[in-house]
Design a protein that fits this description.
By secondary structure, the chain is an alpha/beta fold. The protein contains six helices and ten strands. The strands form two sheets. A six-stranded mixed β-sheet has the order 6-7-8-3-9-10, with helices on both faces. Helix 5 (163-180) links the parallel strand 7 and strand 8. Helix 3 crosses helix 4 (133-147) and helix 4 (133-147) runs parallel beside helix 5 (163-180). The protein binds adenosine-5'-triphosphate (ATP) and magnesium ion. Magnesium ion (MG) binds at residues 40-41, 155.
Length: 213
């Protein structure tokens, strides 16, 4: 369980600080909706450790996350686009998820298995800039698989996709979350995404997260 209790933060010049309280469970997608500018990306930046809160707590299965710098947090992030190095092959991009010093044969085997798991066997040698938007998101998910971090943060990850690859990528996120027991936090203002994916929902309004039924 990822638990935020009264996590406070204010951007420079912001008079009423955000105060975020939420719970997100393993194997589930927790969706965050809210108007543009309401603070959804700020919330993800706090979880990832790119922003430092001024008060409150954040724990993962009871362990304090706030003491960890961003690179040590058990968190992966997937943005709307531009998450791949365009001039590198799919294989190379996925391999970036492996720990440094992984042996060549093992790396090859793990990358191939991850690409197969996201439904992209055979694109390994293609450069990222020759892949479709949906394929790129899948390659990014394969990299996330190899990183093997329990918290996955998704910031509007499907908005650049057409309806068909949107539905397919959505289904993939849901099945990977369940299969690997990820705690997936999805920011989206797309009602279909939330309906298809979310086990829990919060709406961000006036600096607070409201739990939705
Ligand atoms: N680095 C920053 N410095 C000052 N203000 C910021 C900074 N980053 C974001 N803000 C402000 O904080 C508010 C929340 O921004 P945030 O990006 O979290 O919103 P959002 O809900 O993700 O919006 P969107 O749906 O458009 O992506 C906005 O008013 C924004 O202008
Ligand atoms: Mg945002």
């Amino acid at each position: 369980m990822l638990a935020l209790e009264d996590l406070a933060y204010a951007h420079r010049g912001q008079t009423a600080p955000y105060r975020f309280s939420m719970h997100a469970a393993s194997g589930e997608v927790t969706a965050i909706s809210g108007p543009s500018g309401s603070g959804k990306s700020t919330l993800l930046d706090l979880i990832a450790g790119f922003l430092v809160p001024t008060a409150g707590t954040m724990t993962l299965d009871g362990a304090d996350l706030l003491v960890l710098p961003p690179e040590a947090r058990p968190v992966s992030i997937l943005f709307q686009s531009e998450t791949l190095f365009e001039h590198l092959t799919a294989t190379h991009n996925v391999a970036l998820g492996l720990p440094r010093g992984t042996a060549r044969d093992e790396a090859r085997r793990k990358v191939d298995a991850a690409l197969a798991e996201v439904g992209l066997p055979g694109v390994g040698q293609q450069r990222a800039d020759t892949l479709s938007g949906g394929q790129k998101q899948r390659v990014a998910l394969a990299r996330t698989l190899l990183r093997n971090r329990p918290v996955l943060l998704l910031d509007e990850p499907f908005s650049a996709l057409d309806d068909e690859s949107r539905a397919a990528t959505r289904a993939l996120v849901k099945s990977l979350t369940a299969a690997h027991d990820w705690i997936t936090v999805l920011v989206s203002h797309h009602k279909d995404d939330i309906a298809a994916l979310a086990a829990r929902r919060y709406d961000l309004r006036e600096g607070r997260l409201l739990s939705l039924p």
